[in-house]
Amino acid sequence: MESETIHVHSVAEAYLVLMVRRCEVCDRGPLEARADLTKARSGDGQWELPTNCPTCGNDDVLEFRIAPEPTSEQAATNWVNPTQERSRAIDLLGWLTLFRSILEASKKETDKSEIRKLAIECAQCLDEALKFYEPDNELPNQNAFFSEESLTRFRDLPQQFTRSRWLHERSKLPVVVFRTPKSENAGSRRWWQVWRRRDPRGNFDGPDKGQADI
Ligand SMILES: [Zn+2]
């Protein structure tokens, strides 16, 4: 198995990669974390996240590089990307799929504060998705798609990828403000685990082919 370094902007984004990634062995997804993301012993700035495929049971370790280097406070927040850069780990289709999955989870939620948190998570996914568009272009460039499969999805259904549609969805969601050190967001809760738990495997339609609309 090749060892590829995945470049992310935060601890939160590293965990989100699991949701859109497929198993190297059986080609199914998503993957689950076997343990926490930790600094690799090699000391060259790499992070490691042990994973398990719930479909075939394969264990693997994903290697990450996180820039900017997360502080412990930032690592405890849900902040996906403290920079203006596009994601290099999750493509446009991936962010839109995550948005839809979290939105569906929030519809099943009854607690108001949880609904609010999930709305902020949805908003961040759309913020990442919208970075793949140029301001004057209604459709994204092909480099917004990191795999032949997601590019094919775009070519087959371009109407699902119009910028105005996703701007409209974003306008319904809250403005995201993180006050990094020791803010009220710096709890121990890992939201990507929360909505995963409520939407057990089988319902996630991210990496699989031929699923419903975004
Ligand atoms: Zn597998």
Strand segment tally: 5
The averaged pLDDT comes out at 85
Number of helices: 7
Helix content: 25-40%
Molecular shape: globular
Low-pLDDT runs of 5+ residues are 182-189, 197-214
What hetero molecules are bound to the protein chains? zinc ion
Reading the helices and strands in chain order gives EHEEEEHHHHHH
Largest sheet: 5 strands, mixed
Radius of gyration: 17 Å
Q: By helix and strand content, what is the structural category?
A: alpha+beta
Cα-to-Cα separation, first versus last residue: 31 Å
Our estimate of the beta-strand percent is 5-15%
What's a concise summary of this model?
This protein is 36% helix and 11% strand. It is an alpha+beta fold.
Describe the structure.
- With 214 residues, the chain is α+β, with helices and mostly antiparallel strands.
- It has a domain at 5-79.
- Helices cover 36% and strands 11% of the residues.
- The longest helix is centred in the middle third of the chain and has 19 residues, at 112-130.
- It is globular.
- The model is unreliable at 182-189 and 197-214 (pLDDT under 50).
- The chain binds zinc ion.
- Zinc ion is lined by residues 23, 25-26, 28, 53, 55-56, 58.
Helices and strands, with pairings:
Blueprint: E1 5-8, H1 11-20, E2 32-33, E3 38-39, E4 46-52, E5 59-66, H2 72-75, H3 92-108, H4 112-130, H5 148-156, H6 163-171, H7 191-198
Parallel strand pairs: 1-5
Antiparallel strand pairs: 2-4, 3-4, 4-5
Helix pairs in contact: 3-4, 4-6
The structure holds zinc ion.
